[in-house]
Input
Amino acid sequence: MRSTGKVFLLSLGVVAVLLLMHQLPTFSAGDFESRPVCLLSDLLPEAGEEDGLSADTVAPMVPQRKAPVPLYKPEGVVLIEDFSEGKTGGMAGFYDKLLHIRERNERVHIAYFGDSFIESDIVTCDLREAMQAEYGGNGPGWVDCGGGVGTQRPTVSSRFTLLTENVCTKKPFNPKLQALNQRYYYADDGATLRLASTKYREHAGRWSRATLFFMTDTAFSVAVSQNGEAYERTDFAPSGEVQVLETTGVMHNIAYRFPKASRQTRLFGVTLDGDSGVAVDNYSMRGSPGFKLTSVPMSTLKSLARHRSYDMIILQFGLNVVDNNSTDAQCRHYVNRMKEVVSHMKEAFPDAGIVVFSCPDRAQRGPRGIHTVSGIKRLLGFQRNMAAECGVAFFDLHQAMGGDDAIVDFVRKGLAAKDYTHMNYKGGKVIAEHIFQSVKAGVENYRRQTENSLPLPEDSLHQPENETEQPYD
Output
């Protein structure tokens, strides 16, 4: 009995000591921190539990995110695929400018590079007209200083004297002297250039800003007349940079004289634009595979960009590099060279959205009749992969035309030449409308994405199983 009493007293003492230790303050030493002693912790309420809440009853934090935006895709429209993930070369900046172009009174510049498919302003004249009707703007954009194969167009009348063309497809040619049009022009003493509007397309028939682009290694003078008024002369000092002469005012024609010109000066082109709105520049080069654009000096490109910074650059090439015998290795070699072009443009125009257009449809006669060249379909996949690897955008022009054998249908309808390769102006208008609708859809999807900022209710964080529209990613 005595033993039992001793055990009871000892246990009571231990309990008393433990209860008293609850009053001891906590302390820390280095990374060690003591915890308070609480013998009755299982019986006492946790902090906050006096309010009727416990760890089991507190609602978990639900992460807030934007509601999914249904992808806007009109029937029959092939969308531009953007692989940039918001980085340089993507379309967001371009779409944003178009979305707000009228309220900000901005100018948006588009450069369309291609081969003979867009020669003489085919496709681009109607793309320009549609863009300017929708978003504002006037004028035919870039016009070469002088003549040459494919430089004449129905959207502007060009007359010149004593101007000599130097083009990348003919020798002699010094690539270090060229600009984006892959040409340069020498003006002899007394040379002239006159550009006049036409009625071929409504918005191209007038402009309010004419800009002459040139480089000169010596003192240089230009006399300019707008709408038949008296000539005014401007003198320029030599410079290693691209220089411009800008003339403003509502114009239907403009004329330049080059007194005492020499081959120390290189003329490039003239842009004819509105004060705001969209400008579409046609840079066509017959027979070009596209990769020669890397030979345009980066210093010239960056110098040019200070005067005309592009918001969208279209690269449409491939017609001249594939046939029915094209192999994967040949296509891979070609797109590897075109990757250098994309990189070149990214560096020169870091704010531009770059779009690789697939090769359009082309057909040849074979044992089974006239059908799409097999190399076209082979190249298309490589071009899409190239755009993805470069982090830029891609537009399936072949699919937009109608896919395999589409060109056969174009020829049958009188929209294309019987070489089953080139569009006429009627066919070019059809192509331009496909591109325009794709751009409009891109702007609308951008608007939906950026304006959708409200978080979803908690009970709608999961998509219904019967959701029919693809959320915008």
In short: The chain is about 25% helix and 25% strand. Residues 23 and 420 are 95 Å apart (CA to CA). Confidence is low (pLDDT under 50) at residues 27-33, 41-65, 454-473.
